[in-house]
C-alpha cells in the first residue's frame, strides 16, 4: 500500500505550487511544463529529454503514484527495466496521468536472463504488454552478459519493424562497446552508465562523445551515497545560485551534455529536480566539481 501520509505531505507542497501557478507564477509554469526540459538529438535523429524519471525500486502503489505525479510535474522520459519488476505499475502510472503516449519517452531494458535472439524478442513483447504500450522509445541491453550479439540482432529487428524508436546499451565498458560495434548494423544511440559527482567516467565520456553515442547517467545523484546531499563543495556552489546539492549535480550533468534520470518518491523532490534550467554553472564551478571525482563506482555490490 502507498504511504498516504507521505504523499499527503508532499502532495500539499504541490497544491501550494499549483496555487502559485494559478496566481500567475511564472517560475512554476516553467517547472510544470515539459517544454522546459531540453532535448538531445540521438544519432538516429530521435529526440530524447535531457532529464527523466528513474523508477528503480519503486513498486506497487508507490510506483503508480510516483510515475503519475512525475508526469504531472513535467517529466516525459520514464526509465524502467524488466529486472525492476515494476513495468506494470509504471504502465498504470502512465495511464493514470492521461498523457498522450506520443508525448512520452519510455525506456526499458532487457535483463541478462533474457539474453539471446528469441529470448529478447519475447522479453520485449512482455515488457510492452506490461507497460500497456505498443512501442518503446528506447530499449537497452541492461548488462553486457550472456548472448549480447543475439540480443542486439533481435533489437535491430524490432527497430526495423518500428516497435522501438531507438536502441542502445547500458553498463558497457569500452571494449564491450567496441565488440558490439564490430557486428552492429545499427549503432547504439545511448550507453546508460553510472555517472555522478563522485564518478565522472572520463574515458567513457570522451569516447561516447567521439562515437556520437549519448551518455545517460544512472544514479545521477549517487543515491545520496558518500554524502552527496550534504557535500560541502556542492553546497557552497549551490549557495551562490540558491540551489540544492541535488540541483547542482543535475545541472552539472546537463552542462556536460549528459541525460540524467533521478528517482524520487517525493513530489517536492520531483519539482526540485526539474528546476535546473534557469541558471548556469560557471566554468570555475564546473572545474571545482571535477575535483570531486573519486574515479570509482559507488556501487561495488552491483559489479
Ligand atoms: N542501467 C542500470 O544498470 C541502472 C542502475 C541503477 C539505476 N538505474 C536507473 O537510474 C535511475 C536513478 O538512479 P537511482 O534510482 O539508483 O538513484 P538516484 O536517482 O541517484 O538517487 C535516488 C535517491 O535520491 C533521493 N533524492 C532524489 N532527489 C532528491 C532531492 N532533490 N533531494 C534529496 N534526495 C533526493 C531519493 O530519495 P527520495 O525518494 O526520498 O526523494 C532516492 O533515495 C534508477 O531509478 C533507474 O531508473 C539504472
TrEMBL record:
Family annotation (PROSITE patterns): ALDOKETO_REDUCTASE_1 (PS00798), ALDOKETO_REDUCTASE_2 (PS00062)
Residue ranges constituting the NADP-dependent oxidoreductase domain according to the UniProt record: 64-292
Keyword annotations from UniProtKB, A to Z: NADP, Oxidoreductase
Entry keyword annotation includes NADP: yes
Gene3D superfamilies hit by this protein: NADP-dependent oxidoreductase domain
UniProt record similarity statement: Belongs to the aldo/keto reductase family.
PANTHER family, A to Z: 2,5-DIKETO-D-GLUCONIC ACID REDUCTASE, NADP-DEPENDENT OXIDOREDUCTASE DOMAIN-CONTAINING PROTEIN
Listed name of the protein: Aldo/keto reductase
Native source organism of the sequence: Mariniflexile aquimaris
Amino acid at each position: 500500500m502507498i504511504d498516504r501520509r507521505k504523499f499527503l505531505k508532499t502532495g500539499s507542497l504541490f497544491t501550494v505550487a499549483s496555487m502559485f501557478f494559478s496566481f500567475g507564477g511564472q517560475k512554476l509554469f516553467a517547472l510544470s511544463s515539459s517544454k522546459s526540459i531540453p532535448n538531445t538529438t540521438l544519432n538516429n535523429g530521435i529526440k530524447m529529454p535531457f532529464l527523466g524519471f528513474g523508477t528503480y525500486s519503486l513498486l506497487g502503489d508507490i510506483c503508480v503514484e510516483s510515475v503519475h505525479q512525475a508526469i504531472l510535474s513535467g517529466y516525459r522520459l520514464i526509465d524502467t527495466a524488466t529486472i525492476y519488476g515494476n513495468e506494470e505499475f509504471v504502465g498504470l502510472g502512465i495511464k493514470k496521468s492521461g498523457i498522450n503516449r506520443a508525448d512520452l519517452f519510455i525506456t526499458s531494458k532487457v535483463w541478462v536472463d533474457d539474453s539471446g535472439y528469441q529470448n529478447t524478442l519475447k522479453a520485449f513483447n512482455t515488457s510492452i504488454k506490461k507497460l500497456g504500450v505498443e512501442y518503446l522509445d528506447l530499449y537497452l541491453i541492461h548488462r553486457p552478459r550472456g548472448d549480447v550479439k543475439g540480443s542486439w540482432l533481435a533489437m535491430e529487428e524490432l527497430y526495423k519493424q518500428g516497435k522501438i524508436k531507438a536502441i542502445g546499451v547500458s553498463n558497457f565498458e569500452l571494449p564491450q562497446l567496441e565488440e558490439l560495434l564490430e557486428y552492429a548494423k545499427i549503432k547504439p544511440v545511448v550507453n546508460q552508465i553510472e555517472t555522478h559527482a563522485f564518478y565522472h567516467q572520463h574515458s567513457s565520456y570522451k569516447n561516447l562523445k567521439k562515437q556520437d553515442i549519448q551518455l545517460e547517467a544512472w544514479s545521477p545523484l549517487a543515491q545520496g551515497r558518500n554524502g552527496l546531499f550534504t557535500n560541502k563543495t556542492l553546497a557552497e556552489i549551490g549557495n551562490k545560485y540558491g540551489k540544492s546539492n541535488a540541483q547542482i549535480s543535475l545541472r552539472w550533468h546537463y552542462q556536460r551534455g549528459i541525460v540524467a534520470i533521478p528517482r524520487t518518491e517525493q513530489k517536492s523532490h520531483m519539482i526540485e529536480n526539474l528546476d535546473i534550467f534557469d541558471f548556469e554553472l560557471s566554468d570555475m564551478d564546473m572545474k571545482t566539481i571535477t575535483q570531486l571525482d573519486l574515479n570509482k563506482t559507488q556501487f561495488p555490490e552491483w559489479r
